[in-house]
């Protein structure tokens, strides 16, 4: 057998991870602009910020999984948390590092090129781990991620994750009205699903909150979860929201008020889930 050839041939999983990496590398330059950080994204971002601050005091050690351009990590470093920001896209990591330098918080924030599938490369003990806007939807083995989180978080420490959910009524309506029925139902797919972005592919796994929690249940208790952007449309419908801002702000307030209610919390563009290390 030709071992050199065998070693050089990427597995299907490695190819998918590489394609996802290339997809995010391709948008890193402006991902903190309208594409990755419009007002609907910022609205959800505030909920994660408030949740992390409710969970942990300033000064705590945080690990950010899939930090993107570092918006959250710099925000927490500014308010005196110590943050290790990690991402699988080297271009995103560069952007996060530059953001930390520009904000003058490099002493409290480091950016490292580590994917969620290789958390065994990280050392240290964290008070909490957070992940915002779906990096964990790109993880090929959620049980392995959970085991690594258990190794990295102290007993009693927190996980705060925003994850792309399976049931987004706005999305179903949006694509069904355009006759794109497969796209409308893409979140129902079992296993890994190709999702296009910027002429690249993001290999994505979708979850119900309880399905997601099952991977963590051995090491973490479930504290709570809630819908993000259930009444409010998902971020790619921002133009619709800009045409009638007052009306949609009222919908946003419905999210704030009822997003944690039984049944409603199982829907939405994303869900925000909080767990504690046993
Ligand atoms: C939608 S962006 C969110 C970025 C950031 N958390 C934010 O709030 O702006 C998803 C991020 O997940 C990262 N990502 C994708 N696959 C990943 C993986 N396997 N491990 C770690 N990060 C990954 C991408 O590079 C990208 O930065």
From TrEMBL:
InterPro entries: Methyltransf_25 (IPR041698), SAM-dependent_MTases_sf (IPR029063)
Recorded superkingdom: Bacteria
UniProt GO MF annotations: methyltransferase activity
Species the sequence originates in: Luteibacter yeojuensis
Any Pfam family matching the protein: Methyltransf_25
Name used for this protein in its record: Methyltransferase
Domain Methyltransferase: 63-157
GO BP terms, alphabetized: methylation
PANTHER family assigned: METHYLTRANSFERASE, SLR1071 PROTEIN
Keywords for the protein's UniProt record, in alphabetical order: Methyltransferase, Transferase
């Amino acid at each position: 057998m030709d071992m050199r050839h065998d070693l050089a041939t990427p597995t299907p999983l490695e190819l998918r991870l590489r394609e996802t990496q290339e997809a995010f590398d391709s948008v890193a330059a402006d991902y903190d602009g309208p594409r990755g950080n419009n007002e609907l994204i910022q609205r959800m971002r505030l909920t994660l910020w408030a949740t992390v601050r409710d969970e942990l005091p300033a000064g705590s050690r945080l690990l950010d999984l899939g930090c993107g351009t570092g918006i959250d990590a710099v925000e927490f470093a500014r308010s005196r948390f110590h943050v290790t920001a990690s991402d699988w896209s080297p271009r995103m990591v560069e952007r996060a590092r530059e953001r930390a330098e520009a904000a003058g918080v490099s002493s409290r924030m480091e950016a490292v090129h580590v994917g969620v599938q290789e958390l065994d490369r990280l050392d240290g003990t964290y008070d909490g781990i957070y992940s915002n806007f779906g990096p964990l939807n790109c993880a090929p083995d959620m049980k392995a991620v959970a085991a690594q989180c258990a190794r990295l978080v102290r007993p009693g420490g927190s996980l705060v994750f925003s994850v792309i959910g399976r049931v987004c009524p706005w999305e179903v309506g949006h694509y069904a009205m355009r006759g794109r029925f497969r796209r409308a139902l893409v979140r129902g797919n079992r296993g890994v699903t190709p999702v296009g972005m910027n002429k690249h592919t993001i290999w994505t796994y979708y979850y119900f909150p309880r399905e997601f929690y099952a991977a963590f249940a051995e090491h973490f208790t479930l504290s709570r979860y809630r819908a993000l952007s259930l009444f409010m449309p998902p971020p790619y419908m921002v133009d619709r929201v800009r045409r009638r801002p007052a009306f949609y702000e009222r919908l946003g307030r419905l999210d704030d008020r009822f997003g944690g209610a039984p049944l409603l919390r199982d829907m939405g563009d994303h869900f925000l889930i909080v767990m504690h290390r046993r």
